[in-house]
Structure formats: structure tokens, C-alpha cells
Amino acid sequence: MITLAIETSCDETSSSVVELKNGKFDVLSLTTRSQVEHERFGGVVPEIAARAHIEYIYFVVKKSIEDSGLNLKDVDMVCATKGPGLAASLIVGIEFAKTLSVLLGKPFVGVNHMIGHIYSIFLTDEVDFPFLCLIVSGGHTDLVMVEDWYDFKHIGYTLDDAAGEAFDKGARMLGLGYPGGAKIDKLARMGNRDFHKFPSVRIKRKGYYFSFSGLKTSLMNFLRDKEGNWISDNIENIAASYQEAIVSAIVSTTLKAYHDLKVDKLVVVGGVALNTRLREVLRNEIGENALFCHPKYCTDNAAMIGAAGLKKYEILGPDTLELSVYPSLGVIEP
Asked: The pTM is what?
């Protein structure tokens, strides 16, 4: 079975043609247009993101079909991200997909973006169930027990900001621009992680929770009274120390869940899964039992939406055209 998939949950306009054959996914094409429009604002502006999706979605979808070597008539179904994400951006993708499904006379499936991230590992790896999945990105920091293809238990989440948001806002404080996670990672490789000890996050409630808002505040207070060129002269060390605090917070909670639940594999997906220090620490702790999503599928992309959509259709069937968008959707759907 072959799907045309569309992802427009935030600031990437993405389309992919994905095939599910003999239980394995094959990405026949993937086209993603990242929006540079937001760089000067230091973050994503929802209205600008939606307008950019409207402007580029036709051309992105057209290219993904062309690159696949197929025609639209070869597609068996159409799927798109229904949430979570920016409401106006989600509407662009979901309505475009619905329109195509009507014109082609093919089934339509709305896909949970977070489940899409979980499925990104299956685009390149075979992983036996059950496994623990860490979804870590600009909008999400969640722990999910994946029992089967569409059987999930949401066991942990951030109480405030996501880890990726902490990276991006930290980068903005340091004058590095948006998006900032990769920039902090690059600078941190040349810095001293012990230059400054940012406070450890202490969460009193029982369970597997994360918190990053305090780290952002700590960085802001640390930088407040620095004068002259002090910040620029020490930028690598600050980046390394700040990154270490974020990574430590992610790893401590994740390892607690991993050992408590006695699972064989930890799968790490999402944009922050690209972070080299996070990969290093987790691999040092649990070795080959830590699996990371392939770099090209870590950030928001339609291939992961296609994989999740194909399996959803296989197990649960199609959605109706009355399906709406769900900006605040969680892993466990109502």
C-alpha cells in the first residue's frame, strides 16, 4: 500500500510518498521546505507559518510525487497531520489532503504528529515491541511505552517547557538566533561543560517528569550582569554548561523509567535526538540498547506521518472528511 503524506504542524511544509510492503516501510520520496521567514523574529510566528504553508504546499506535494516516480493515481490513500501543532498550519495540510482524497477517490487518514515521531524509527530500523520511546523536540518532551503498532502508554512528560524550547530560547539569550539547538550543540563541542554549574531540576512528584523553565531562568540570571565582551569571549563554555544541564535533566528521568520498566530498548526521536551530547551520554549509559532516529527523520517530516498513517489505516481504517484539527492533541487520543 502506498500513501501520499503531508506534514504542516509547525514551520516545515513537507510531503512524502511512503510504501508499506511485507511489513516494511519504504520512503519513495521526501520533500521538505523549512521556513526561514521566522529567523528574524527569534521564533515561529503562527500567522506567517500558515501563509507560507499555503504558498508552498502545492509545489512541495508536486515535487514529492515527481521524485517518487509515481503518478497520483498510484497512491492508495492520503494522510496528513491532524495535531498537535499550530492550528492554522494544521488546517492547511489537513484540508489539502482531504481535497486530494476526494479528487482521487482514495481514503483519507488524519495522523497524530507525536505518533508520527514514534514511527520515524521504523523508517530505518526494525525494533521489537515493547520499547520505551523518548520524544524530545521543540514542542515535546515525553516518554511513551510502545506496546504494539497502535498501543501506547504515556508515562512521562514535561511539566512546563520542552527541551527543544529550552535550547532555542537559550540560544536567543546568547544572541545565536533561531533555531538555536544545533548552534548550541556546535559551540558546546568546543567548550568546557564544567565552566558553570546550572542548578539541577528537582521534581517532587512521583513519576517520570521533566522541567526546563527553571534552567532558562537560571541562564537569564547568569547572563544578566555580564559586561563588555564577556559573553562572546566565553560563548563556547556557556553553551557547553547550559547544554549539559538540559541533557542531564533529560537523561536522569529517561534512565529512571528505562530501568524501572525493565525494557530492552530505548528509542529516541524528535529534533533534539540530533544533539550529539545526548547521543553520547545515552550510549555511554545503555550502549546499543539506545536507538536513535536517522538524522533526516528527526525533525518534522512527512515520511514519519506516512508510516504512521499507513499502519493506522491498516489497523483502524480511514477517517471521515469531517475530521478536524487538534492543536493540543496528546499521544493518547480521546
From this structure: 0.95
